[in-house]
Every structure is written in structure tokens, then in C-alpha cells.
Amino acid sequence: xxxxxxxxxxxxxxxxxxxxxxxxxxxxxxxxxxxxxxxxxxxxxxxxxxxxxxxxxxxxxxxxxxxxxxxxxxxxxxxxxxxxxxxxxxxxxxxxxxxxxxxxxxxxxxxxxxxxxxxxxxxxxxxxxxxxxxxxxxxxxxxxxxxxxxxxxxxxxxxxxxxxxxxxxxxxxxxxxxxxxxxxxxxxxxxxxxxxxxxxxxxxxxxxxxxxxxxxxxxxxxxxxxxxxxxxxxxxxxxxxxxxxxxxxxxxxxxxxxxxxxxxxxxxxxxxxxxxxxxxxxxxxxxxxxxxxxxxxx
Length: 298
Prior knowledge:
By secondary structure, the chain is an alpha/beta fold.
């Protein structure tokens, strides 16, 4: 489940004995209050017979912070608290109210020291999604960040042995992740989204490309950063997941100006989906689907 400011997405994934995943359903519905979101989730739980199922709550970007930190040679048992108090000047709430998790990213194929990152969220912002899940007769398995949900999506593309980049274009923003061998090397939130592109989708190509130039620049900077910081070779391809509407010129333009192949996002050949599924609706639910794909070792 992913609760956003103007809606809620919920998805269910089932795995067979071999671990092969099948998407059972995915749904996004607009809602503007916690009570309305609870009603929608509860309705989906009843319709899909999901009572007491384990649920991953995926946090939207504005409810947490992801930052690089440096703490020196501190014992593992003390790292979390050391990071907590280092956050004092970087978050707008008291460190003791922070729920934090740490992860490391090691340079690719290198003995260099990994970079340490922290995900921090204020406790009170986590209560609402947890309460919605529990009141809907689901069991909270874990609370996860959006970029890690997208990492789970990228992990489906096992034939891309050089890794994958995924660009999800939401209404008011975009998010780019770069993943290889299950490692999230980079996440970049873009200020441009579908709302910036749709006004120019049917004719004003020059204005559309003006918007896309900014996206190309952000993506290329991200590729350059991964190469210089993590020594990561260029990924196999960039997949673009649009919402609201498919604008073919977006993929065409990015493919013309980026140094890797750019393709429209699709679950074809990597995830079994319901026959009646529409790609745009699946794209809108991508964060919830990524959460549902989470496994114990993620």
C-alpha cells in the first residue's frame, strides 16, 4: 500500500513455491483524508479476500528524508545512535522523534569504502499509514521508502545484467532510480512530472522538448554521478513509466539524447499480470506493486 497526498494505491502479489511472482491486482483511487483512504483500502481487502495478509507500507517522498552520512570507524552496534544525533541540524524535528534505517552502497567492483546513507522519518508521520493498514484487517510487515519499492521493480529484469534505470513520471514530479545486482545506487527526485508535459502533448513540440531538456539533463547528471562516485558502467537501458497518459515523444526524445537505450516501461516477460490490466493504471500503482514485491532479503 502507498498512501499519497491525493490518493492511495494498493497491490497484491502472490508467489509460487519456486518464488515466481504473479500480480493479483493493483488499484489506485483518489482520496483526500485518512478516513477516506481507510474506507478504500478496507473495501479492497474485502473484495480481494486479503484479510490478515502481510502488508508493506510504502512512504511517499515528502514523508521522509534520505541523506548520506559519515560516522567514521564506529562499531556496528553504535552506528544507529551515532547517526541519529548527527541528524540534528539536517531535519526539522527532534532527533529522538526520528525513525531511522541505514544502508550502504559500495563502489562497483571495488575495494573502496562503502558510502553510508540514512532514511529518516518522524514517528508521527508513520502512524497514519500504519493505522490505516491495521484498521483494514491487514498486518504491517514493514514500512519502506519509495525508492526501494522501485528497486524491487528493477530486480524483475534479470536479463539486464548491466543494471537498469527506471524513471517514474507522476503528476507533479518524477523519480529516477539506478539499480544493479539488487543494489540501489542512486535515486533522484525530479521537479518535472506529467502535469508539466501534458499541456504540450498534442502539438507544441518545441515547448515539450523544452520541458524534456531539463529531464535529460537530470538523468545524464545521475549517470555521470554513478560513474564517478561508484565506478558504475552505463546501465543496459532506461525504462520510462508514464502516468495519466502515454506521450510517445517523451521516450523518443530521451532515447535520442541519452547515452543508453530508452524504452517504454512494461511488465511483459517479467511479471504475470491480470489480463484486463492497463499499463497506465499499473504505472500509477508502481510504488504499491514494488512494495508488494518485497521479499525478506530486500
